[in-house]
Specification:
The complex is a heterotrimer. By secondary structure, chain A is mostly helical. Chain A has one domain. In chain A, helix 1 packs antiparallel against helix 2 and helix 2 packs antiparallel against helix 3. The relative contact order of chain A is 0.15. Chain B has one domain. In chain B, helix 2 crosses helix 3. Chain B is 69% helix and 0% strand. Chain B is an all-alpha fold. In chain C, helix 2 packs across helix 3. Chain C is flat and about 70 Å long. The chains are: A mainly alpha, B mainly alpha, C mainly alpha. Chains in contact: A-B, A-C, B-C. Chains B and C meet through helix 4 and helix 5 of B and helix 2, helix 3 and helix 4 of C.
Amino acid sequence: MVLLNVIIIVFLILCAIAVEKTKDLLSAVVILSAYTLMMSVLWLILHTPDVALTEAAIGAGVTCILFIAVIMRTERYER
Amino acid sequence: MNDIIIKSITRLIIPFIQLYGVYIILHGHVSPGGGFAGGAMIGTSLVLYTLVFGIDKSKQKFSHRVSEYAESGGILLYVSLGLIGIVITGSFLTNIEAGFPIGNPGSVLSGGMIPLLMVGIGIKVASTFITLFHTLIEEEVV
Amino acid sequence: MRKRLYLLLFVGLFLVLSYNIMQMPGKSTVDAPAYNDTTEHYLNESIEETGAINVVGAILADYRAFDTLGETIVLFTSIVAVASILKVADQKKKEDDHE
């Protein structure tokens, strides 16, 4: 169980660094979505199933779609 | 999006997503979940419908008038349930003292006003997500 | 020079924070500072006082119902802001096209 925790947290840190380094905003949104999905697994390990449900639906689903809609209205690449 | 596989699967899967969202909302007081999680699921299913079948067809199902009523209705349900408490006991948002039936703890019909508040929150969250998405993509996809 | 100073600062901060995390009580133990009279009251009396067996739901919609009302108003404000910005921009674009 400790090993799973360590793997998930290392993945989260790598995702957070990758979001900051990526110039393509669409890729950044997809990486953020993966981050949120792993975060919901972490909530499940911490015994909060309701936060995990909300995080999986809002973070990985709706936030990603809303960010993509905003990118569609503006620009795809960071200047 | 003109893909027969995506269209058939979406038509098949949307009722189940919405049924699960309604289940999460109505069982908010007996199992994990509640208004926010269930409302987000229903909103996501409507966003999926918009993505697959286009904004015009989605506008027929969930027009601006419906979204106005849902936006105001969810929050008005919440506030009016609080006003019942202020009329009877004198303080806002009271549950048991205001005369809401407590029921049998553990069954669906229990908890006084908690399930009704969860329904209000669920309607609000679902309509917020779908209205935000419609407003954001409205003019661009014409 | 300045870069090395920042690096030293952040490494020091990392060490201090890591040491503090090691000193924290483990999750869901009696020593945790979040475990006090309020927790006991919610866990023991919430079924009698609200009739809901999900304590999180009871706290969200009964004990802290004002808080949830505020969250709902935040959602309402966000949608008003988005609609007021985007609708005005769209109408302006249409008027410019007509002229």
